[in-house]
Amino acid sequence: MGDDHSHSSKGSAKSWLERIAAIFTAEPQDLSDLVEIIQEAGTRQLIDTDTQRMLEGVLDVSKMRARDIMVPRSQMATLNINHSLQELMPVLLENNHSRYPVVNEDKDHIEGILLVKDLLAHALKGETDLDLRPFLRPAVIIPESKRVDALLKEFRQKRYHMAVVVDEYGGVSGLVTIEDILEQIVGEIEDEHDDEEDLDIKQMASHVFQVSALTPVDEFNESFGTEFDEEEASTIGGIVLHAFGHMPEKGETIELQHLTFKVSKANNRRLVQLQVIKAKTPAEPPTE
C-alpha cells in the first residue's frame, strides 16, 4: 500500500512537472494558455504583480468591443451648440473634462468635438458670447462592435482621443476615450482633482455631505453613526452598489439606514462620488 502511495505521489509530481515544463517550452495554443503562462511567471516572481496585471489587461482588451468599455449615453457630458460660453461654464466646471461632444437638440445629433483648451484664450479675454461652431473638430464615429485593440491603434496613429459609439440604427449609445482603454490595462487613472475629491468626507450643507465611494466602511460608520457590515464590502461604494443591485446612473438615489445616497459621479465600471443626505429632524417650534 505504501508503494502504491509512493507511486501515486511520484506520478502526480511527474505530471505536474511535465505540465510546468509544457507551459514554458511549448507555444501557447490560445489566450487561456497565454494567461496561464503569465500567471505562472507571476507565481515564480519572474514578473512583479503590477506587470502581471497589465499583461492580463492587454489580453482582456484584445477580447473587448467598444460596447464593453464605453461611457453609456446616459452618463455622457455634452455641450449644446446653441449655448454661449457663459451658459456652458457650469457644465465645464462640474465635469472638468478636456473635451466634450457638442450636440444639436439631443445626443443623437453630434456636431463635433470641442477641446476646452481651444476656448481658453477667448474665455480669458471675457468673450463669453462665443459661437462654438468655428472651434469644433470632426467627431469620430465607431460601431459598438469595434474591437478595442484596433481602436487604440487608431487613437495613436490618427492622434485623436475620443470616439462616439453608435448602435446598428445609427443612434448614439455612448463614447470611448483613449483613457478608458488605458484604464483597462493599468487600472483607474485619477487626476489631481479626483485626489482632492476622494480624500475626505466633505460637509456641503447642514445635512448634505460629499463622500468618496472609496471611503472605507469603518470610517464611514464612525462619521455617520451607521452600522454597515464590513464583511459585505470594504468601501461605502461597494455597500451602495450592492444595495442597488445594478450599476446606477448619475442622479439615482437609494435610502439606507436613515441616509439618502445619491450618485453624483460614476462611470460604467464603478461608483466614484456619492452625495449623502441625512434625514432632517422635525423642526422645533419657533421661540417667541
UniProtKB/TrEMBL annotation:
PROSITE patterns per UniProt: CBS
Domain of life: Bacteria
Swiss-Prot/TrEMBL keywords: CBS domain, Cobalt, Magnesium, Repeat, Transport
Residue span(s) of domain CBS: 70-130, 135-192
SMART domains documented for this protein: CBS, CorC_HlyC
SUPFAM superfamilies: CBS-domain pair, FAD-binding/transporter-associated domain-like
Magnesium in keyword set: yes
Family as reported in the entry's similarity comment: Belongs to the UPF0053 family.
Known function: Plays a role in the transport of magnesium and cobalt ions.
Name of the protein this chain belongs to: Magnesium and cobalt efflux protein CorC
